[in-house]
Design goal:
- The complex is a heterodimer.
- By secondary structure, chain A is mostly helical.
- Chain A has one domain: Na+/H+ antiporter like fold (Up-down Bundle), CATH 1.20.1530.
- Helices cover about 75% and strands about 0% of the residues of chain A.
- Chain A has 16 helices and no strands.
- By secondary structure, chain B is α+β, with helices and mostly antiparallel strands.
- Chain B has one domain: Alpha-Beta Plaits.
- Chain B is built from two helices and four strands; from the N terminus they run βαββαβ.
- The longest helix of chain B has 16 residues.
- The radius of gyration of chain B is 14 Å and the shape is globular.
- The chains are: A mainly alpha, B alpha+beta.
- At the A-B interface, helix 2, helix 12, helix 15 and helix 16 of A face loops of B.
């Protein structure tokens, strides 16, 4: 797998975004456009996934959901243990950061889909439903870790009387707009007749890759902006932002290939789900539920370190490893 | 034109606090408020406003001295829990009769 694997329009537009920011270009997106593009991408992937899942095997779908939950609950615990090793990072920041690594980045997932399509490699559609399932468990674990940390701090006399407000947080986690849209589009894709779905084909399929390029251009600008905060987060966190996706990717390959029996394409997508860090669903939940943590740490890690690492290194690397492992 | 003297409070916080701040303002009994999405940089890092995760919201509210104290006490509770809020208070000459307590 050489450099040519990176020469797909989506990745090249990401690089263009980074370049534009580094040369201090005035290139920027109008306010709200990124949110609009995110909504389109999730709706399109939901429609595609739903249509495919309508013909899928229910047993494999249930197994996929189960393993997605296992990954969603396990990844934050691994992350928290790494961050707390020798008290490197305080409990609150460790809880908030690790929650991001149990959840997923839809942009990384879609880049991996674009990567597979450019190579003409087919993939299962179950990872799409895994993406939906993995949005929430990490938020719960992050909040639990923070609640335990508060108790511990109070016991030691160095904490405030802060309590975790579970009701609004769980409402936010379970009714997050992106989760609702993705799930809803999947249901629409699954129940709508094939002839009716063909009418929306230009919207959900033909313009998809072009819009993804536009989105990754913006992500490149945003990632480069975050890279400037490297010094602020420190070397320990920068290393974590690279080590954590490696651990997640390897676990994902094992789950995808050995436990779910997916093809190389499907295995890569599970690996990317486990390797990516959320920057949409989890940060608002952590800002509200773990206000003691510093948002610049987890946003810099998710957007400035782990996202570019996965796009440039992770996807081709996990593809090669999936190829080797699946055989 | 008739006017009254009130206080104007500006509160900047994470967008994730929007519904909490609205609830507090209603409970304090303000006559109304204005809010909009804002961008900025500070202790919490750059807030580009591109995603929900890095958006801030600015509330502007005109209220009496008494209600201002009640509101500030409620906001102090949020600050104590670790939420990042920037709060300004200025004297305001108000020309809208409905905004005068």
């Amino acid at each position: 797998m050489g450099l040519d694997s990176l020469l797909i329009p989506a990745v090249l537009f990401f690089a263009l975004g980074v370049f534009a920011r580094l040369v201090k270009s005035d290139l920027k997106f109008p306010e709200g456009m990124s949110k609009g593009i995110s909504l389109y991408l999730l709706m399109a992937i939901g429609l595609k996934g739903g249509a495919a899942l309508a013909q899928a095997d229910l047993t494999v779908a249930v197994q996929s959901i189960f393993w997605a939950l296992v990954l969603g609950f396990t990844m934050p615990l691994i992350g928290y243990s790494l961050l707390r090793f020798r008290n490197r990072i305080d409990r609150m920041n460790a809880a908030a950061i690790s929650a991001h690594y149990g959840s997923v980045s839809a942009a990384t997932f879609l880049t991996a889909v674009a990567f597979l399509e450019a190579l003409n490699v087919s993939h299962e559609t179950y990872p799409i439903i895994m993406m939906v399932v993995m949005e929430t468990p990490a938020i719960v674990i992050g909040l639990l870790l923070a609640a335990l940390a508060r108790k511990e701090m109070e016991k030691n006399g160095d904490g405030s009387a802060s309590v975790t407000e579970w009701k609004p947080l769980m409402h936010e986690a379970l009714t997050n707009g992106y989760v609702i849209l993705l799930l809803g589009a999947m249901v629409v894709g699954a129940v709508a007749p094939e002839a009716a779905m063909e009418k929306v084909f230009p919207f959900s399929h033909e313009i998809f890759m072009g819009v993804l390029c536009l989105f990754l251009l913006d992500m490149g600008i945003e990632a480069a902006r975050r890279m400037g905060a490297f010094k602020k987060v420190g070397m320990v966190l920068v290393a974590f932002g690279i080590v954590m996706p490696m651990i997640g990717g390897l676990l994902g390959i094992f789950v995808g290939a050995s436990l779910l029996g997916f093809s190389v394409g499907g295995t890569l997508l599970v690996a990317i789900l486990a390797a990516s860090a959320s920057y949409i669903a989890v940060p608002p939940a952590m800002r509200f539920g773990v206000p003691e943590a510093n948002p610049s740490y987890y946003l810099t890690l998710a957007l400035g370190i782990t996202f570019p690492f996965n796009v440039v290194v992770g996807i081709p690397l996990f593809y090669s490893l999936s190829n080797w492992y699946v055989g | 034109m008739e006017s009254c003297n009130e206080k104007m409070l500006q509160i900047i916080g994470s967008s994730s606090l929007e519904f909490v701040l609205k609830k507090i303002l209603r409970e304090v009994g303000v006559n109304g408020f204005t809010f909009f999405n804002v961008r900025g940089d500070g202790d919490s890092g750059f807030q580009s406003g591109q995603f929900e995760s890095d958006s801030n919201v600015l509330f502007m509210v005109v209220l009496s001295d008494e209600k201002r104290e009640t509101l500030l006490n409620r906001l102090a509770g949020l600050l104590k829990r670790g939420h990042h809020l920037t709060i300004f208070s200025v004297e305001a000459e108000v020309f809208s009769p409905t905004k005068c307590d």
